[in-house]
Amino acid sequence: MKAMVYKGPGQRCLSDVEKPSMRKPTDAVVKILKTTICGTDLHILQGDLPEVAAGRILGHEGIGIIEETGESVRHFKKGDRVIISCVTACGTCRYCKRALPAHCEDGGWILGHLIDGTQAEYVRIPHADNSLYLLPDNVDEEAALMLSDILPTGFEIGVLNGKVKPGDTVALVGAGPVGMAAMLTAQFFSPAKIIMIDTDKQRLAMAKRFGATDIINPQRQDVVAQIAALTGGDGVDVAVECVGLGATFKICQDIVAKGGHIANVGVHGKPVDLHLETLWIKNITLTTGLVNTTSTPMLLKALNHIRVNPNKLVTHHFTLAELDKAYEVFAHAAQEKAMKVVIAAH
């Protein structure tokens, strides 16, 4: 089968590899229908995650059709259409029992990281009963694909960790896919203001169309001054960091209100400064996290009732044979006006 294989920092190759097979009775093999590329895949290629071995098939998002199930799989059968969670959960370890499957002792984020992933024609899914979700016929496939990772990530690590509540002022620093996902799901809680901060005017315009009440471009505006003007000098109740850079993390520290929350969603490949010399007195809460995907069933219901439409984040379509081109487009998102790319595997 064809698959995108990581060859080491800065190197990837669309290669012919062996089709995955069952290893344990709790496994399922899924025929990929659609997959996508995540910013974390770019971090892997940049060498930010040295634990990823050369030869690994990339990707941790996808929707597909069950090809085969192990004898212990009870909730799925051959032919079922499914959403693949980016987090694999055994369901029985101490972390899964604490609703923290991101840290599952026999799973967590392993697809495209520690085991072969979804940017391929087929993928093996360990602990299938806890790591797949049935895809209803009435749910748009591309919307469902966003439930593999970005929508629950933005919701859980940005909105829920940030304790967004009605009437809040929320600032999202970074209008990429996860920032947009956090913006879409923050609207569940009716904040008074949703402020998107980014240097890309195309993405800012998209954010405005999708629900941002205000937009700020740090290349053209003083972010702190603009936030002060919008909040009566108080700062924002929730600042969500969605990029993973020192500069964007500092913006969050500069604009958070007394008693506010900083929710860090971005993947940081380098150390950043935490200015406790100014923050210690402000009674802020700082959270970090890897998505657990425990919100996926609720978000799937929201899709069913058209409360959120994440498929509007899709800007480009490719076939599996065009995966190299898809990576180039996604890696140069500003020039290509790209948000999420969808790759049809079959």
UniProtKB/TrEMBL annotation:
Needed co-factor(s): Zn(2+)
One Pfam family here: ADH_N
Q: Which Gene3D superfamilies match?
A: Medium-chain alcohol dehydrogenases, catalytic domain, NAD(P)-binding Rossmann-like Domain
Annotated GO molecular function terms are: oxidoreductase activity, acting on the CH-OH group of donors, NAD or NADP as acceptor; zinc ion binding
Q: Identify the keywords attached in UniProt to this record, alphabetized.
A: Metal-binding, Oxidoreductase, Zinc
Q: Which residues form the Enoyl reductase (ER) domain?
A: 10-343
Q: Which InterPro entries match?
A: ADH-like_C, ADH-like_N, ADH_Zn_CS, ER, GroES-like_sf, NAD(P)-bd_dom_sf
Which PANTHER family does the record cross-reference, listed alphabetically? NADP-DEPENDENT ISOPROPANOL DEHYDROGENASE (PTHR42813:SF4), ZINC-TYPE ALCOHOL DEHYDROGENASE-LIKE (PTHR42813)
Query: Which family is this protein grouped under?
Result: Belongs to the zinc-containing alcohol dehydrogenase family.
State the protein's name.
Alcohol dehydrogenase GroES domain protein
Q: Which organism is it from?
A: Sodalis praecaptivus
Q: What is the lineage of its organism?
A: Bacteria, Pseudomonadati, Pseudomonadota, Gammaproteobacteria, Enterobacterales
